[in-house]
Amino acid sequence: MPRLVPIRLAKRDGSLIHLDAESFTIGVNREVGAMNVLFTQGLRIGTDMNQARLSIIIDVVFVDDDPSALAGDNSNNGTASMFFTFDTMRHLGEWAAYKGDEQFGGYFPEEGKNCREIYNKMRFLFTSHDRKMGKLTGANGFVIVKLSHNAGLSSPSISGTVGEENTPVTGNHAVKTITVSHNLTTFANVAAAFQAAFTTSAPALGIAMVDGGSNQKLSDAFSASIRDGYSTGTSNAGVTVTSVQSGLGLNHTYPHIMPDNKPYIPHHIAFNGGWNPTQIQGSFAFSAAEKVQNILGIVSNSNDKVTKDSRENISEDVEWWGERFGNRFDVMKTNDDYIVGLQIPYESIIASGTNQGRVLRNFFLTNGRTLSTHKGSEGNITLATAPFNPEGDGQGKAGIEVTIDAFDFTYDAGDNLYRGKISCLPVDVIY
After folding, report:
1. Residue 124 falls in which region: left (phi positive, over 0), alpha (psi -120 to 50) or beta
2. CATH says 5-74+280-302+337-426 is which class?
3. What's 37's DSSP letter?
4. Which one, 156, 322, 355, 387, has least CB within 10 Å?
5. What is the CA radius of gyration of the chain?
6. Which residues make up the CATH 2.30.110 domain(s) of the chain?
7. Residues 247 and 27 sit within 8 Å (Cβ to Cβ)
8. What is the distance between the alpha carbons of residues 246 and 329, in angstroms, rounded to a whole number?
9. pTM of the model
10. Are 82 and 241 in contact (CB under 8 A)?
């Protein structure tokens, strides 16, 4: 048998279907128009509206999964992660990034007064994984992280007293609040203040964050680490938040962000990568025939009813609160098997560093206003084994967001072998 390329199909719930490709074809057709201009001696002009049609065709050999081989992908232990990058802002659906004199669209604040005015008194409402899974009731499992400006501070300071606040999301139910003070005039200081709320030195909340009354700190449910900003690369301007609990509950959700006096919120990517710890990288081991049946069943009857634009509101109004702190109501139960992503690895030299050999990365696409360094291989820092993230940007997706538009398979009884052809269309939003 020829050398096979390991690929993965990612479902809406974060689980995976592991496949082996004999070959694959990725085609791009740009819709560029050209015409001759009369009386110009053959002058030709063209139009390019940056419209590109893409297609992906994969020739697959179906083989049984090897649980011991797949176990090497368990890098994140089934815990979901998200990130904020505080050097990039969002205003009513428009994105703006800031670095020096560069502007990629929208509002253009700077570090200093504008940064302070945006982030001062901003609140972030978090819901723990165990709360999302219905293991906690009442006010348990919810917490607000509130930022407060103090020009005299050189490091974050956390109030020892935990407050309570009502929010439009929670109605009459008060939520425990951790207030972190810092000099919020730089993006790095904002990130440092935000991250401080997730440290073990932060005060106990007086409520349970995970299933168990003694787990009363935000750090019992989440960990947080400093990272660079994504769009601008500003040092230490971002924070990655990771759930302590494994599971699917937080996938495709994110905190409810409440600015104080300006309609701007930091760029953030939803939680993703969580899966059941009893599974292997979000997937059980399947036989070749089971993989065929799984794809056949999904492609022949699946509906992606939850779009990116509606997912946040559904999470807030239905999943998070149910009947006002009642049990979790899962609105995505009937469509969480919808295939949304494709991971095809390639060997990279530039991503490995000087004289470091080759590393694996996944093919990816971009859209919108994107830095040239983020379109190619040099900007691809995401590991090929990273969980697929449909909420990510470019290489941050760890693959290509797709929908399957055709699936054909053949069974060869003589060789006891299933072969198939999968046709995918790259799409960013399905309606």
Report:
1. beta
2. mainly beta
3. P
4. 355
5. 24
6. 5-74+280-302+337-426
7. no
8. 19
9. 0.67
10. yes
